[in-house]
Amino acid sequence: MTHSLAEEAIRPAALMTDKADRLESDRRFLLERRERWVPVSCPSCSTDDPAPFATKDTIEYQRCRNCSTVYTNPRPSESLLSEFYGQSQNYAYWNEHIFPATEQARRERIFAPRAERTMRLLEKHGVDVHTAIEVGAAFGTFCEEIRSRNIAQRIIAIEPTPALASTCRARGFETIQNTIEHIDLPCTAELVCAFEVIEHLFDPKAFVERCAGFLRPGGLLLLSCPNVRGFDIAQLGIKSGAFDHEHLNYFHPDALAHL
Fold this sequence. Notes:
The chain is α/β, with parallel strands linked by helices and 259 residues long. 41% of the residues lie in helices and 20% in strands. It is built from 10 helices and 11 strands. The strands form 3 sheets. Strands 8-7-6-9-10 form a 5-stranded parallel β-sheet. A 4-stranded antiparallel β-sheet has the order 2-3-4-11, with no helix packed on it. It has a two-stranded antiparallel sheet with strand order 1-5. A hairpin with a 2-residue loop joins β2 and β3 (59-64). α5 runs parallel beside α6 (141-148) and α5 crosses α7. The longest helix is centred in the middle third of the chain and has 36 residues, at 89-124. The chain is globular, with a radius of gyration of 18 Å.
């Protein structure tokens, strides 16, 4: 990335202030349904031997003694999470206001470099792409970058949030409004991408297995997520903005490799 990136460029303060009430409404939606939260084992290694890590906004975070993955436990059930993203006022606001206002900056500073890196990885591994799938396509900006570079002949956007799925369709992408764990595709792909998705999921192992099931032999699965060993969390700990009601899994590179 050749240019610096200021937070104001992708999260304008005025818009972030306006969305605060919507974010709080989403948070209450989950916290007021605690009877539907369930205990889980480590999302990376499946070990059931957690140590207390921290508590924030009444949400309990634990660290796996085996692989050091941090995760919320208990957490909202899979069905509750599906309802949560279906009704999210926060994501509707992002779709209507924040993403449109910041798309150019996001495209130049985040998605174009990400698409270029994707091309390098495909070349490195000798992968020719006919079909590409983006899971959690959001506003469709990465799909646009894939299309503009002719990386794939067919692009499928998977997005469970209604407003965002509608935007992907409006941009001309083949769009499925659901989670990948609950769909059947009539095809396989050489490239499956999921950027800042896996930290939101009830069952990351099932997600990775499902993504792998849609990959052709030799295909690539590209993931990104917050790093629990990264600079911000190392410095701020539980005060880091990475710890919120949506993020359930806090991996690090070794944990992801294990998964």
